[in-house]
Amino acid sequence: MRCRALLAAAGLLAAAVPAVASATWRAEPVSAAAVDPVAAIAATGTGAGYWLIDQRGGVSAFGDAPELADLAAPLNAPVVAMTATPSGDGAWAVASDGGVFTFGDAPYLGGLGATPLNQPIVAMAATPSGEGYWLFAADGGVFTFGDAAFAGSLGAIPLNQPVVAAAATSSGDGYWLIAADGGVFTFGDAAFAGSLGAIPLNRPIVGAAADGRTGYWLVAADGGVFTFGGATFAGAEPDAAQPVVGMAVRPDGRGYWVATRAGAVRAFGTAPPAEPLPPRPLDDVRLRTEVVVDGLSAPTAVTTRPGDRTLYVTERAGRVRAVRDGRLLAEPVLALPDGLLRAGGERGLLGLAFDAAGRHLTIHHTLPDGDVAVAEYAVTGPDAGPVRADPSSRRELLRIEHSAFGNHNGGDVHLGPDGYLYVTVGDGGGAGDPLGSGQDPHSLLGTVLRIDPSRPSAGRPYGIPPDNPFADGRDGAPEVWAWGLRNPWRIAFDRVTGDLWIADVGQARLEEVNLEPAGTPGGRNYGWSRFEGSQPFGDGPVPADHVPPLFEYAHDGGDLSITGGRVYRGRAVPGLAGAYLYGDFGSGRVGALRQRDGVVVEAVDRLATVEQVVAFGEDADGELVALSLGGRLVRFVAG
Q1: If 611 and its partner were Cys, which of 157, 188, 401, 588 is the partner (CB 3.0–4.6 Å)?
Q2: Do residues 234 and 318 share a domain?
């Protein structure tokens, strides 16, 4: 083994500065097959195509890459890496537990799925013959299969940062291991050409590729590309808002693709435009519902808990119920006493969310005086669930005055991808915004709020995220993230892209859907009560900064009140991938749309029917479920 993890700064700066070059998006975010966060990219032997594989084994083919069948779900551990066969007609993938999966002409030569590991597998590489491969662990352990030769490992060497990537030499007689801080370790005939171990990085290294035996590329999580030895720099476009998962280099060594977690791909140098397979038209999708459980009492919201296959459902009368393996469990997770609840009509227990650790449950409900409350409870039980809430642990996060009218309470709580809690609140009720809250950013009514329950500050039981638009309280309430909303009845984050979808109930003419792409600064004014959808409303001045809806529909055919849904990222109905589904409480129809760059490119009015649909959710596999106020929880399946 030759181990040189540090390089003098002068030598590094001559060889590995991540110069920035202009690049365009050569492929849209995955819209056909990949449904979970992308785990890896692998190029075909011709350099004219590639595959993306998501964490659950869904594969999308681009360019000349042949279509490969998705892995059967569920997996014991997420997929972390993929590498192509020399022919380009197949590939291997590996999960973090060392399980190996084959596609196309890739032979199965063994795996580590049943072997206890000190550290998870993070990378793999194939031999030039296609008859062997290496698996690499985060602690630098190396495992060989087939004709892959063992050339050494780091298993007994303390590392400053874990190994995150690896690449094999063209001879198959050596390999490089790459640490998150850019440290490079060489084995066999792999030449050391430099590292980043002594250079501060904006983001950690996440991927690597080799150029023969003497050069290599490293790519950081923000898309910065570093070259060493004979590797050619073809450009980079760092963007911290688009987390990168890896790169794939063309055989000519003069071009490469960089893939993001959301499935978007940037091409540089000679890498050709490799367009995704077109998604199936929504008009061709056939959808039906299956009953999961019946007998709920006026259910209002449904969610899952991290690491738990239980579905947790709120009932308007103040109970949180658990649905496990198709059964409604008799014992409630939480039951609010009469002294904490006023239920009926649009009031009651309306929403719930778990924190990232799954140890706290936050609920949204109305108090006996009509005020809106958001409260947190500690939960106990096995990590795999189901859990129960401890009533004595209640911690009230928010109490918002809402006694004038019984309607327009909002009702959603969501943990955002940024780790903050998002809360929706209606405009205070009545018709036409009689309280004038819609265009008042100092009011907590008619808003999406964003708070940090983990950091109480300034006498509040929560903290204000520093990038909230009115964090200093001068131009609006510090808690406000978005405003100008009438009754935001269900918001959702796309779990692949991080985009925020906001469905807002209209007055008498129009229902609307608003979209905040990931990375959008807060402070958007959606126009109520000077606009209903895209149409002027009332007599007041028109706000110059209002943001029109992405999508709207009129009160025709029984439509009455929108119920916001989710972007479909499941696998049971591939034709729905990337589509946003929503419902209407009045007509019961479930519609869908797709958007690109803030423009709706496809929409279908009715894919299924759920009477009195009040909420949508996702189960542990990412499949879409919905609630009927009449008491049913249903799932959507191909039909």
Answers
A1: 588
A2: no
Structurally, how many domains does the chain consist of? 2
Cα 205 to the center of its chain, rounded Å: 21
- The parts of the chain modelled with pLDDT lower than 50 are 1-35
Q: What are phi and psi of 391, to 5 degrees?
A: -60, -30
* pLDDT the model gives residue 77: 92
pTM of the model: 0.69
Q: How many residues does the chain have?
A: 639
- What is the 8-class DSSP label of residue 533? T
Cα 533 from Cα 378, distance rounded (Å): 39
Name the residue range of residue 585's domain: 282-638
Positive or negative, the CA dihedral 117, 118, 121, 124 is negative
* Angstrom distance (rounded) from CA 449 to CA 499: 16
CB distance 515 to 448 below 8 Å = no
Look at residue 275 and tell me if it is in a domain.
Answer: no
Asked whether 73 and 57 are in contact (CB, 8 A), the reply is yes
Three-state SS for 229-242 is CCCCCCCCCCCCCC
The letter for the amino acid at 331 is: E
Q: What is the dihedral of CA 490, 495, 500, 504, to 10 degrees?
A: -20
Task: Specify whether 104 is located in the same domain as 146.
Answer: yes
* 3-state secondary structure at position 338: helix
Q: Are 302 and 627 in contact (CB under 8 A)?
A: yes
In a domain, residue 530? The reply is yes
Please tell me the distance from the alpha carbon of residue 221 to that of residue 208, in angstroms, as a whole number. 11
Query: What is the pLDDT at residue 70?
Result: 85
Identify the domain boundary among 269, 302, 332.
269
Domain boundary pick from 202, 235, 269: 269
Confirm whether 526 is domain-assigned: yes
